[in-house]
Amino acid sequence: MALVCIAREEGIDAQRIGSAIAQEIGFDFFDKAKLEQLMIDLGLKPGALKKYDEVKPGFWASLSEERDDYLHYLEYALYKTASLQDSVILGRGAHVIFSNCPGVITLKLVAPLHWRLNQVKNQFQGDEKKALQYIKQTDENRKGFTRYFFNIDWSDAASYSVTINVATVSEQALLSIIKTMTEEIKTKEADKAFSLYISNHYKAVQIVDTVIYKHGIPINFFEAEVQGDKAILHGVSSVEPTIERALELAKTVPGINSVENAIQLIQDYTIMP
User: What are phi and psi of 20, to 5 degrees?
Assistant: First the structure.
């Protein structure tokens, strides 16, 4: 299995290009609508999407618990998607979330500003000033989103497998490039490494969902690390029975047979407001 994760500047028509890539290489295409619906189905409150989905959060939004909820369900949706089928994923920081995963191509679509302006201005009845403002604001939001949630520079070319200027590279050439890259990474060894990586991370996010979101167990900084069928739980708690309950719940996640406790027990631990 494999993934193609696309980041893009505004005015590229990445929705159409992403769909074309998926069709060319025989992958499923996951755009904003599909991923947002999956996040809601998994448990995210719809209101959080408007605050955080590919936007730079405002001051109060950055302090809200919904921030952590959004990131959790984003990772949950992406790992669930990756565990089920070969996919082309548009935006949502997927190129960062899967940056260390074998069998993943991260693609940045770019073009000169004047070229993108020509593509967008018809949406604004030819008003170039409004079109330019829209492009700059959208790009700034995507840059801020990536910096805020992942501490990564969205503009850094080193964050991507390949960057393609769609103003100078034909769509057919682009499709040929991605198809060739996909064929090269889909080896038996890479497929095994991809499956193991995704399986471990998917089980880890399911443990967090079960312990924190489904059962509301009060453990601060809770994380799960999974290695095959073994999970290691991290975090901070002031109550031992709470830790024991988390260990029990982690064992209910499919594929987890043993759980190791690395949660720190600190008496009278509280987070300062």
Answer: -65, -40
Averaged pLDDT, 111-127: 87
Strands of 220-227's sheet in order across:
220-227, 230-237, 258-265
Q: How far apart are CA 28 and CA 9, in angstroms?
A: 22
DSSP state of 256: -
Identify the CA nearest to 145 among candidates 213, 78, 67.
Answer: 67
What CATH fold (topology level) applies to the domain 3-186?
Rossmann fold (3.40.50)
Q: Where are the domains of the chain?
A: 3-186, 194-265
First to last CA, the chain: 45
CB < 8 Å & 24+ apart, contacts of 68-75:
69/44, 69/45, 69/213, 70/44, 71/149, 72/205, 72/208, 72/209, 72/212, 72/213, 73/39, 73/42, 73/43, 73/44, 73/48, 74/35, 74/39, 75/201, 75/205
Distance CA 201, CA 88 (A): 19
**Dist CA 245 CA 164 (whole Å):** 50
Amino acid at position 14, single letter? A
* pTM (predicted TM-score): 0.89
> Residue 95 CB: number of other CB atoms within 10 A?
26
* Alpha-helical regions (H) of the chain: 14-25, 32-42, 47-52, 59-63, 65-84, 94-97, 113-120, 128-150, 171-185, 188-208, 240-250
Question: For 191-217, how does the pLDDT look when each residue is reduced to its tens digit (9 = 90+)?
Answer: 899 999 999 999 999 999 999 999 999
- Architecture of 194-265 per CATH? 2-Layer Sandwich (3.30)
pLDDT at 269: 56
